[in-house]
Amino acid sequence: MTQPGTEVASTSVPPSKPPLAQDTAAAVQAALGAEHAAVWVYGLVSAFLPASFDKPIAEGAQTHRTSRDTTERLLGASGVTPAPAEPAYLPPKPVTNQASALELIINAEQDCTTAWRATLERTDDPTTRTTAATALTNAAVLATRWRKAAGITPLTPALPGQP
Asked: Which regions are flagged for Polar residues bias (predicted)?
């Protein structure tokens, strides 16, 4: 589904691992929530963006589904039940056109970078850090692509994931 040079990294999780510390598990659950929301947002914005955005929408949605699935496996391997997705999410502003759809998708990507940065700050576990760093990087790259499509500058913050 991706063109050469546009692949987004994925991580694999070992079948079992020690339990996560409580603050780490809470941060990973929050990041999972951001991934669930991002997947939902990609579905919503597809109704407001022209067909020329179909490929980046599909790639972004797949990236977040991969992060979501990896995160669920990470939690499960640590003995934590992954939180399910909400049936729907309430955007901060109504989505009515291309501009508001792009704003929402950028916000969803920023939410993911913030959640994954918070996870990095709360763990020393190598698997969790790799998962978080990969997901943060992927969301930051996608946010940059969407800012470029929306004509927003700067294209990326100096430190993606800062609240």
From this structure: 1-14
The answer to the question of residue 162 being in a domain is: no
Q: Is residue 83 part of a domain?
A: yes
What is the rounded CA–CA span in Å between residue 120 and residue 143?
19
132-142 residue pLDDT tens: 999 999 999 99
As for how many domains the chain has, the answer is 1
Q: Taking Cα atoms as reference points, which of 94, 73, 83, 95 lies closest to residue 33?
A: 83
Domain with residue 44: its CATH number is: 1.20.1260.10
pLDDT (tens digit per residue) in 49-96: 999 999 999 999 999 999 999 999 999 999 999 999 999 999 999 999
